[in-house]
Design a protein that fits this description.
The chain is built from three helices and two strands. By secondary structure, it is α+β, with helices and mostly antiparallel strands. It has a two-stranded antiparallel sheet.
Length: 86
């Protein structure tokens, strides 16, 4: 993991990192920045990294700790099945 992700001093720097990420990887999902107080990271366990799906304010999917054990295939399968139900 690149250490520069942990050296942000301004919210704008986080936005710029998101723009870089989106240019490089073209994600098919929204990417958000935590505020500088890191409340989201504390609330949802930002380290280790995880993939979450949230619906109506409730966590409906929590992936394994990452980034080493991300199982994107598992999440995609779950998402397809979940989408069929809802």
């Amino acid at each position: 993991m690149n250490s520069w992700f942990y050296n942000f001093h301004l919210l704008q720097e986080r936005f710029e990192a998101i723009e870089m990420f989106e240019e490089i990887s073209s994600p098919k999902f929204p990417v958000y920045a935590d505020h500088m107080n890191n409340n989201t990271s504390r609330a949802y366990g930002g380290i280790p990294e995880r993939i979450y799906a949230i619906r109506d304010g409730k966590i409906v999917y929590q992936g394994a700790p990452g980034p080493a054990v991300f199982d994107i295939d598992n999440f995609e399968d779950w998402l397809k099945n979940y989408s069929e139900v809802y």
